[in-house]
Specification:
Elements: H1 11-22, E1 30-35, H2 40-51, E2 56-61, H3 69-83, E3 87-91, H4 103-112, E4 115-119, H5 124-130, H6 135-149, E5 154-158, E6 164-168, E7 176-178, E8 188-190, E9 195-198, E10 202-212, H7 217-220, E11 222-232, E12 235-240, H8 244-256, E13 263-269, H9 281-284, E14 289-295, H10 299-302, E15 311-316, E16 320-323, E17 326-330, E18 333-334
Parallel strand pairs: 1-2, 1-3, 3-4, 4-8
Antiparallel strand pairs: 5-6, 5-16, 6-10, 7-9, 9-13, 10-11, 10-15, 11-12, 13-14, 14-15, 16-17, 17-18
Length: about 350
């Protein structure tokens, strides 16, 4: 995918950073890569890098989840029982993001003490661009952004595509960093990574969405025209898009779920090595910018006092963001000093 973020994909470099950096694999680890027939060529690169660091690294090919989740889930369980891994990577297609919401899967990883990378829509851009970066630097910048956003009260998001959204945050709704480093037993999450997020108290205005998250992302990709969502009192109150089928399916999905229309997440992408959206949510939610989710607010992180069975991320293309009146992002690029240490002050 030449041209995305201005670099050619380096899948070997991305696999090396995934295994040696994000997951910190050593010779004492047992590594299991879960993949399917469509993603196997990338999983093979990952397992090759794992074998350079440890003698026990295996590839397990599962049935396509799109053809039936129970069969794929059963094969995943058999592989976990067979290898008892200390490190796992899920590198397979999961259009509905079903495994991510399967509490029994995460409980099993917890029992194993496995460090886990969840990559449910892995492609060349995700591995060769999203992972082929210095994740120690991603983590440093992400934590710095989190520190500077903590205590903020008001955010204003605008974009050339039509976003005009004002949000109010609260001290009891903390900002949480996701750095992409899963180096201790039991840690795990999505990769590529780099974001900070919270649940705002309320929001008003219009959100112009260029990428719609799971379960719509595999079909919709990067939208030629934005999905416009009117937000009032922290809830989606109307949706408009030229594709009436997409519009109605997203509306029905959010409306039919308890608290599905409620704004559950406000996030800023912090992986500055990425500069352009691809249409793949796994990649795009880490690009410097904004994504907002309707539905579940992940209260264990955000302090929200409600829940929802759905969580649909919405990515804004090249947004500008002001926090308490100060500029944080302009057209999808961080302001020069934001996230950087303050200069030393000497008397």
């Amino acid at each position: 995918m030449p041209g995305v973020s201005g670099r050619e994909p380096d899948v070997v470099g991305g696999a090396r950073e995934l295994i040696g950096g994000c997951l910190a694999v050593t010779g004492a680890d047992r590594v299991l890569i879960l993949t399917d027939r469509r993603t196997r060529h990338l999983a093979q690169v990952i397992v090759t890098e794992a074998r350079a660091l440890t003698g026990v690294a295996e590839l397990a090919v599962i049935p396509d989840i799109a053809d039936g989740y129970p069969a794929a889930r059963a094969e995943i369980e058999r592989a976990l029982d067979r290898y008892e891994p200390t490190v796992t990577v899920f590198a397979a297609a999961d259009p509905g993001d079903l495994l991510a919401w399967d509490a029994t899967f995460w409980k099993r990883l917890e029992q194993l003490g496995s460090r886990h990378a969840h990559m449910p829509a892995l492609d060349d851009a995700c591995l060769g661009l999203g992972m082929a970066v210095d994740y120690a630097e991603v983590a440093r910048f992400t934590l710095a952004v989190k520190d500077q956003l903590s205590g903020s009260r008001s955010l204003r998001i605008t974009s050339a595509t039509g976003t005009e959204l004002s949000l109010t945050c609260g001290l009891d709704r903390p900002w949480t960093p996701f750095t992409g480093l899963y180096q201790c037993a039991g840690q795990g999450g999505r990769l590529p990574q780099g974001e900070v997020f919270c649940t705002p108290l309320t929001a008003e205005g219009v959100l112009a969405v260029s990428v719609v998250g799971y379960p719509f992302n595999s079909e919709s990709g990067l939208l030629a025209e934005p999905l416009l969502i009117e937000v009032a009192d922290g809830r989606a109150v109307s949706l408009r898009h030229p594709d009436r089928d997409l519009e109605s399916r997203v509306r029905d999905w959010l409306t039919e779920a308890s608290q599905g229309l409620r704004l559950g997440e406000l996030a800023l992408g912090t992986n500055r090595a990425l500069s352009a959206l691809t249409g793949n949510l796994l990649f795009d939610e880490n690009v410097p910018g904004v994504h907002i989710a309707f539905g579940h607010p992940f209260p264990e992180y955000t302090g929200a006092d409600w829940a929802s069975p759905v969580h649909v991320d919405m990515v804004v293309q090249r947004p500008s963001v002001q926090v308490d009146g100060a500029t944080v992002l302009t057209g999808g690029a961080y302001a020069g000093a934001f996230g950087e240490p303050s200069p030393d002050v000497r008397s």
